[in-house]
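Colleagues,

For the teaching module next term, I've prepared a clean inverse folding example: a structure given as tokens, and then the sequence designed for it. I'd like students to try predicting residues themselves before seeing the answer, so please don't circulate the second half yet.
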């Protein structure tokens, strides 16, 4: 009986090892993107990011648009992912260019004081503000392009 258990244990360990090797060596290029991570990515849509919230609020009042503020830090891994995926997506960039005044603030630099004013507790944090600086909506943390668009569109209709 003990001999049979040892053989089963060895067979199970060998099978598990093969599964781990197979999973770790799969070709990442072969993984198909999902709709949540691949909205659009062809052609570059330019976005003019401001680093001056008071000037952006003034512009927002003049143009009748809300302000979208992204609080980030250079050391923040999820901020980098937000920038490289969501904020690089053309559908997101089109909304940023056409429907809001986009602002980006480094909490370790030019955005330190404002991150305290708006009670930014984690990074990244995206705020949608009206032209007077009042918060319309908040996205705490990373969000895929699809989720980001749904949230921002909801804020825009609410504001």
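(Answer key — instructors only)
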């Amino acid at each position: 009986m003990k001999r049979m258990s040892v053989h089963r244990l060895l067979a199970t360990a060998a099978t598990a090892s093969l599964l781990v090797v197979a999973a770790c060596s799969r070709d990442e290029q072969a993984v198909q993107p999902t709709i949540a991570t691949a909205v659009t990515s062809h052609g570059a849509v330019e976005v003019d990011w401001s680093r001056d919230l008071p000037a952006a609020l003034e512009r927002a009042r003049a143009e009748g648009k809300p302000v979208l503020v992204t609080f980030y830090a250079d050391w923040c891994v999820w901020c980098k992912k937000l920038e490289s995926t969501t904020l690089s997506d053309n559908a997101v960039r089109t909304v940023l260019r056409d429907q809001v005044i986009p602002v980006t603030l480094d909490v370790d630099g030019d955005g330190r004081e404002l991150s305290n004013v708006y009670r930014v507790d984690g990074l990244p944090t995206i705020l949608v503000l009206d032209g007077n600086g009042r918060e319309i909506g908040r996205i705490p943390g990373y969000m895929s392009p699809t989720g980001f668009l749904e949230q921002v569109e909801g804020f825009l209709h609410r504001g």
